[in-house]
Amino acid sequence: MVAPDLVIHRIHATDTVLLQQFLEAAGNSLETFRYFASRPLTVITNHLVTIILSENGTPIGYGHLDKDGETVWLGIAVKEQLKGRGFGRSIMQYLVAAADELQLQQIMLTVDKTNIGAIALYQQFGFVEAGMINEQSVKMIRKSNHAR
Which of 62, 66, 90, 65 shows the shortest CA–CA distance to 78? Predict the structure, then answer.
């Protein structure tokens, strides 16, 4: 449940102002959330869902469901100094509900193997480890209830 001073904004490629504001203020979170390090903001054109979580009008979190061929990738990030306050959980609740509403058979993500807090959060939403991507990243998968 998102608190009253928190708002989830669904954004599109034509309106990336909130996204840019989030990225500028994300701090060290971008060291583990490297999605936009090699992609332009317009990549969200390919997304099934793109959201910004704001608190009192300030962007503090980001999430997406990104369709890449037959695979749908989930990605989230929370402003560094606000981690551990449940904002990632709010973003995950929204994205997992959206994936279920879209009747996606499975969604995948990658996470740094040292990011124990994120891995625990993902496991709470039904993600299980599905191998290593490279030396630092773990692949996780969540199958929908009707695909299990």
Answer: 62
